[in-house]
Amino acid sequence: MATVTLHSGSKRSSCNGITDSESKELCTVAVARGHIDRARKIDETEGTSLSTEIKNLLSAATIEEQLHILKDIAKNHLGNGNECEKSKVSAFCIQLLIDIYVAAAPKDPFKCAIARIFMALPEEAHTDVAVCLSAHLIKLMSSDRSLVEMNSVIAAVGCCFDNFPIGVLAATISVLPALRLIKTCLKYCIMELSHSLPPAKKMEICHIVHSSLRTAVSLLQKCQTKVKELVYSERYCKEGYLVPDMIVNLAALLDMHCNLMPGSTDYSESDGI
């Protein structure tokens, strides 16, 4: 597994524990070895230099240099903004950017830059990107994961709503598995909170609950039509609901699909979404 190392200043603690605002955090975003191998094969058949560009991305010393290389990859292989090429090369580049986008932490420079790159593509390419992004998210949602890992995937879904219309479309496509994941995550949280926990652990669980509910509200608010179509009957989701009523809809969703009794350990998929 090769990795792209991000260098970004922040007061938040990170993978290496640096919290001083004067320091530079070192975080990593994984680039699968399969991407590099596939890039070499595309280079052989298409006469491109993708593998070299990825190696340059991996060896770049600063976040600024990495972002510049990413923009060049998009400029060279994804069209000029007026038209978008559809080829094996463009499909590969879109998948590479999506993999890095999803793996990057919220508010990470890579995440923001890639969102801007995608939004700069011609409008006809937006749907293709959204379908690819939703497929990546659904793949992550379908895997067995720990509570912390589920929270990371839910956070990735939540980032789709950060001034990123393509992300909203991707979340809409994957809304049902996203709600299923949130349901499972909340059930695990409820079980954990029914036990005696140290204050720090309890606070961590509460943060996960907050993140999950915030993402659920975003899904209900931004994907109303799809949610009504897939999840609610007319009894639980009335026409004409206003935005504040999203909280009411969320309460109905939890009432329908989650056993909120402390100590519940029934996580079977037979009880709802």
Low-pLDDT regions? 9-26, 259-273
Q: Radius of gyration from the CA trace?
A: 20 Å
In percent, how much strand structure appears in the residues?
Answer: 5-15%
| Helical/strand content category | mainly alpha
Q: What is the number of independent domains? A: 2
Average pLDDT, rounded to a whole number, is 78
What is the chain-wise order of helices and strands?
A: EEHHHHHHHHHHHH
* Biggest sheet descriptor: 2 strands, antiparallel
* Overall geometry: globular
Spatial order of strands in the largest sheet? 1-2
**End-to-end separation:** 35 Å
- The percentage helix is 55-70%
Number of strands: 2
Describe the model:
The protein has 273 residues and is mainly alpha-helical. The chain has two domains: 1-9 and 26-121, no CATH class; 123-273, no CATH class. The protein has helices at 33-46, 50-59, 63-77, 88-103, 109-119, 123-141, 147-159, 165-173, 175-193, 199-222, 224-230, 246-257, and strands at residues 2-8, 25-31. The protein has a two-stranded antiparallel sheet with strand order 1-2. Helix 1 (33-46) packs antiparallel against helix 4 (88-103).
Name some characteristics of this structure.
single chain; disordered C terminus; mainly alpha; 5% strand; 273 residues; globular; two-stranded antiparallel ribbon
List the helices and strands and how they pair.
Layout: E1 2-8, E2 25-31, H1 33-46, H2 50-59, H3 63-77, H4 88-103, H5 109-119, H6 123-141, H7 147-159, H8 165-173, H9 175-193, H10 199-222, H11 224-230, H12 246-257
Antiparallel strand pairs: 1-2
